[in-house]
Amino acid sequence: MQIEAAQKYILSKLEQELAPNLYYHGIHHTLDVVNVALQIAEEENVKDSEFLALLKTAATYHDSGFLMAYSGHEAEGCGIVRDVLPGFGYSQGHIEIICGMIMSTKVPQSAATDLEKILCDADLDYLGRDDFKSIGETLYAELSARSLIGNRQDWNQLQIRFLESHQYHTKRSRLLREPQKQAHLNELRETV
């Protein structure tokens, strides 16, 4: 597997071709998810180099489907993975594991394997971080630009429902992020 080359390929495409109004789902989000996924893997004691390579690849490609479509971007991302990664030496088995991880991030998340759980938690890590509000503002701007959300009150209600239904999957995220996520939820409840 030519991991670095595969990563460089898609990051270049994301940087050059993503719609400019993807204020949340931009390359900055992808890079954040890659970093957090590897951090969670380390804290969850994932040491297998092949698993780490697959996780890093899935994290890098997890939102690549936004190059093709907004709705259903996970399936589009799997299409990209199936088209591109064989050229970088990934086997069919590797590709299926990567697609499983990507599809598990579709909301509501459905993580079954340890790698899927790590990627899902990395994707929504910000829900329990101090930058929750600023990152949330980028998602609000993105949804507003696409006329997918109404006013601020609608946004706050959506965030409340989302935070209430969301669950972290890894021990690390439950310990490190869940308390702050609950604090954000309580703050939002006070606004409605």
Task: Please give the radius of gyration in angstroms.
Answer: 16 Å
Give helix and strand order, one letter per element, not per position: HHHHHHHHHH
Continuous helix count:
10
Q: CA-to-CA gap between the ends?
A: 50 Å
Summarize this entry quickly.
The protein has 192 residues and is mainly α.
Walk me through the structure.
With 192 residues, the chain is mainly α. It has a single domain, classed as Hypothetical protein af1432, CATH 1.10.3210.10. The chain is built from 10 helices and no strands.
Descriptors for this entry?
Hypothetical protein af1432; 192 residues; mainly alpha
Give a topology summary.
Elements: H1 3-17, H2 27-43, H3 49-61, H4 73-84, H5 92-104, H6 114-123, H7 132-145, H8 152-165, H9 171-176, H10 178-189
